[in-house]
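Async update (no meeting this week)

Hi team, since we skipped the sync, here's where things stand on the single-chain job. The sequence we agreed to prioritize is pasted below, unchanged from the tracker. I ran it this morning and attached the output directly underneath so nobody has to dig for it. Comments welcome in thread, and please keep replies under the output.
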Amino acid sequence: MFCLCRYNHTFAVVSEQVFMFGGCAEDGCYYKDVHVLNTETLVWQRYGVKGESPLACAGQTLTAHHDKDIYLFGGKCTSQDGTVTSTNEIHKLSIAKMKWKVPLYVGIPPARRHDHTAFILHSHVCIYVFGGKNEEQEFNDLKVMKLINPSERQPVMKQILSEFGLQGVSHGFVPTKVPNVKYELSESPSLFSVRTDAAASAQVTAQRDFSAVRDEAMDMIHKAFSMLDGEFQKLDRERSELAQSAAALQYKRESHQAHHQQQEEELQEMLERHRAQNETWLRARAEENDKERKGLCKLREEIVHEQGRLEEEQGNIQKRSEHLLSIMQQFKGM
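Output:
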């Protein structure tokens, strides 16, 4: 099974197989299908890949990691508004499961780009990205992303936290600490009386300030009702405008229906008139045809009658000729 014509696609070699992804057609359509070429049989095969598939793109990189995974980074694709833009997404294709995944890595991801180069240094399990370009600039930087194996997720996170001076999160049992609280009366009676007087004075002040709070609350209520009145007036105006628009639309609809009805009546009248004219013309042509056919029939009868009369005269003439011939032969014998 051959793949469709395309350009700016990418390859990755894994063992005896060549994996191909993406590319762009002549009409600007981007692909996200995966095709595999078996180098022994030289047969192409399209694979159905599960998981979270990358965007349909071109100009990305496919980098094989041993014979287990293929990492895809970057490329250019079509955004939701139809414009062509670059991306910095990274995806991992698990060859054993034929499934797309979003890999874990440590480091700042490179800026979105396409037409770059990438390789994996197996000793450090890092993917290196160099160069490329996007819609704004061209790059000559080198970015490194350290790939994280899911089984090594917790040790790596502990190492990262320790680098920032943080301790790892313990998932074991830790008993709850009960705070040490002192239940003692250390205040003197004089201090208690002072606090009581202060509370009483604060209560009186609060009662005095209640009128101001009430006035402020009433003012806010009046403002709120004023705003509600304004909104209701605005709603009434919009309702009136909507009613006027509905009436205008109904008037246009009725006028359109009346005009359509008038056109149908005129068309029906025109059809009736045309039908009457055609029927009149057809009847006249039929009468003329019948009259002409009757004349032809009469003429044919006259011709047949004249033909019979001529044949009869011809027979009489033939008899006379024979009679004269016999008389002449008699005269010759005398």
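Quick observations from my side:
The longest helix spans residues 189-333.
DSSP finds two helices and 16 strands in the chain.
Reply here if anything looks off.
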